[in-house]
């Protein structure tokens, strides 16, 4: 498994393409602050899509009964294996790290 950083200029198209492959995948979201323990935001929940709005610098994770927003993204990292994604970490300007872990890897076309 390798980690790759996604440049902010790539985020909009990257997440649009990823959203097409999600097909209501199960995932969980953890929110972590520097110097504190992990806080699980969700248990396994259906992810319907991920979108990045460059004008407002906001990343949206659209889930079953939940819309998770991350404002002013500083860093986006994805963990990939053989053309699949296992997890994504997004760090916001507030210092919080948002970890989206897929129950099963998402294959990209």
Describe this structure in words.
There is one protein chain. The chain has 109 residues and is mostly beta strands. It has one domain: Protein Yojf, Chain: A. Helix content is 14%, strand content 59%. The protein has one helix at residues 8-22; strands at 2-5, 25-32, 39-40, 45-53, 58-63, 66-71, 73-81, 84-92, 97-107. Strands 1, 2, 3, 4, 5, 6, 7, 8 and 9 form a nine-stranded antiparallel sheet that branches. A hairpin with a 6-residue loop joins strand 2 (25-32) and strand 3 (39-40). The model has no long low-confidence stretch (mean pLDDT 89).
**Count of all domains:** 1
Please provide the ordered H/E string of secondary-structure elements. EHEEEEEEEE
How many strands appear in the DSSP assignment? 9
As a percent range, the share of helical residues equals 10-25%
Task: Describe how the helices and strands are arranged.
Blueprint: E1 2-5, H1 8-22, E2 25-32, E3 39-40, E4 45-53, E5 58-63, E6 66-71, E7 73-81, E8 84-92, E9 97-107
Antiparallel strand pairs: 1-7, 2-3, 2-4, 2-9, 4-5, 5-6, 7-8, 8-9
Defining key terms:
109 residues, globular
Quick description:
This protein has 109 residues and is mainly beta. It has a single domain, classed as Protein Yojf, Chain: A, CATH 2.70.180.
């Amino acid at each position: 498994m390798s980690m790759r950083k996604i440049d902010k200029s790539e985020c909009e198209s990257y997440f649009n393409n990823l959203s097409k492959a999600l097909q209501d995948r199960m995932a969980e979201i953890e929110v972590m602050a520097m110097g504190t323990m992990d806080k699980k935001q969700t248990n396994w929940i259906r992810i319907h899509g991920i979108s990045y709005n460059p004008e407002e610098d906001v990343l949206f994770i659209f889930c079953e009964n939940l819309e998770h927003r991350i404002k002013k993204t500083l860093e986006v990292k994805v963990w990939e294996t053989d053309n699949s994604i296992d997890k994504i970490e997004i760090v916001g300007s507030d210092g919080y790290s948002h970890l989206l872990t897929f129950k099963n890897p998402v294959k990209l076309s």
